[in-house]
Structure formats: C-alpha cells, structure tokens
Amino acid sequence: MSQIYISDQDFQNINFNDQPLQTGEYENCTFRNCSFEYTDLSDFSFTDCEFIGCNLSMAKLVKTAFRSIRFKECKMFGLQFNECNAFGLSFTFDGCALNNAVFYNTSVKKTLFINSKLIETDFAECDLSNSVFKSCDLSGAVFDRTNLEKADLRTSFNYSIDPSLNRLKKAKFSLAEVHGLLYKFDIEIDRS
C-alpha cells in the first residue's frame, strides 16, 4: 500500500472518525481542534507537527512515528506510547491530559511536560533523563525502574517515587513535595 506525503498543511475542526486521515507521512502540519478519538494512527509518521486542542484519546499508535511533535491542550487518555516507532520519538506536552497513558519502556529523554495531568500514567522502565515536569499532576503515576536522572520535578506534585527502585541521580525535587519520595517509609512529615 503506497503512502502519501503531506507537508505544511493546516487541518481544523475535523472529526477523523467521520473523515479518516490518509495513512502517510505528515511534516510541518498543524492539527487544530480535531478529533482522533479511537482512530487508528498505526504506521503514520508525524514530523515537526503541532496538535492544538485535539482529542487523541484511545487512538491506536502501533508503529506511529512522532518526531519533534508539540501537543498543546490536547486530551490524550489511554494512549500507548510504548507501541510507537521508537526511532526519533520526541514530543512536548503543554496543558495536556495524559491520564492512563503508557510510556512503559520508552526512551523519551529531555521531554517537556508543562501544566499537564499525568494521572495514573505508566512510566515504568522509561528513560526520562533530563526531562522537565513543570506544574504537572502525577497522582498515581507509576515510576518503577524509571531513569529520572537530571529530571526536574520541582514544581510538580502528587507523585510517589521510590528512590530505591528508580534512578534519581541529580534529579530535582521541591522540599514541599519531598514526602512523595518518602511515602514507603510510613513516616510522618510535619509540613509546618
């Protein structure tokens, strides 16, 4: 099956369940207020694209390539980023809802997560070294054998990270949220 190549296009207010996007390679495209909910984006390639105000919840991402992608104010529940094409996988999330997303065993170094909800997101065995979590809600997020070396979580909150199970060398945390690193010891921390 031959794939198409599309560059420098703007897609606005399209429900891709009603009008399926053609499988292919999309470069330097903008998707604004589009719905990809439950669509199959397997084998698509997106490079230097922006998704703004889109709903990508439960989209299928088998071998999907995301290279230098910016997601802004997108709803992205349950996405399986671990099924994406690993080559060049890179993105930024700003104001997104990534609840129940799976990054299991992915290498997404230097990723920016800004003002995003990462509730019950799976980061087990993920390489998040040098990543920045700025003002993110990490309630119930799973960190297990995760590389967080040099990651910055100073302004994020509600995380529970076991230092004995994760790599944290030179990671940055705020004193106000330090209990998220000590929860397993069942000690009481006076916040006064």
From TrEMBL:
InterPro entries: 5peptide_repeat (IPR001646), PA_immunity-related (IPR052949). It holds the Pfam family Pentapeptide_4. This is Pentapeptide repeat-containing protein.
